[in-house]
Amino acid sequence: MDRVKRKSSKVIGYWMSEKKSQKLNWTDFASVCREHGYSLIKINLDMPLEEQGPFTVILHKLTVIIASAIQGNAKAQATIDAVEHYIRRHPEMAVIDPLENVRKLLDRYVSYRVVHDSKLEEIDVFIPMSVELTSDDPEVNLEKIVSAGIGFPFVCKPSVGHGTSDCHKMTIIFNEKGVVDCKPPCVAQAFVNHNAILYKIYVLGEDF
Fold first, then answer.
1. Phi, psi dihedral angles at 62 (to 5 degrees)
2. Which of 31, 39, 43 has the alpha carbon at shortest distance from 12?
3. Which comes out higher in pLDDT, residue 172 or 24?
């Protein structure tokens, strides 16, 4: 479809990694899109977005690239800067999900605060007590842990919760001497024995 025709049609531009793409049934999704008057175009992040649009919607899974940018990868940061520049130039376009929301979910401590400040606790969903550690000084970190009311043992998790090779590496800290093993930026969280049972909660607007 050329750009002249696209200006009068509804276009969903999408991007996700090949690994993620292989898990989805794009043939069926494309059929559903066509039934509702949308065409589906895969975005090439190595090309200017202005040359590929206009888009009615951008659907993306830029999590890994955003995480790499947060950790200082210059190429990833340039890619995200280009995407955000395009989004700012086209406020009429819907973005799923807004990049600022993705950043919140990537930051464990921020996402914990979002849940803590929500109404989810009214249905017995809770976040164990936690504190963010940003210092390389174990004494400073120990003081923050004690001030937060977190006892031993506790779990130490990287602040970045997705998109990196180390994001799921966690450490159990059993005593004060073990605080030296906390590698900031990280989150110290009270240990709760959940018997390896995890629940996923999906939120859409005000519904969950």
1. -90, 15
2. 39
3. 172
- Chain segment 94-144, per-residue pLDDT in tens: 999 899 999 988 999 998 888 888 877 777 777 889 999 999 999 999 999
What is the rounded CA–CA span in Å between residue 108 and residue 137? 21
Residue 188 β-bridge partners: 131, 156
Distance CA 30, CA 61 (A): 17
Q: Please indicate, yes or no, if residue 180 is contained in any of the structural domains.
A: yes
CA distances from 129 to 112, 179, 182, 187 (A): 9, 17, 17, 10
CATH number at residue 96: 3.40.50.11370
pTM of the predicted model, to two decimals? 0.79
The answer on 141 and 99 residing in a single domain is no
**Boundary-marking domain end, from 73, 106, 139:** 106
The residues with which 155 forms a beta bridge, in sequence order, are 172, 189
Strand, coil or helix: 76: helix
How many distinct structural domains can be found in the chain? 2
Give the structural domain span for 180: 108-190
- Report the distance separating Cα 199 and Cα 125, nearest Å: 10
Within 8 A by CB and 6+ apart from 176, the residues are 142, 152
Q: Which spans in the chain are helix H?
A: 3-6, 18-21, 26-35, 63-70, 74-89, 99-106, 108-116, 138-147
Dig out the tokens for 198 from the structure. Answer: 């995890």
Count of beta carbons in the 10 Å neighbourhood of residue 31 = 11
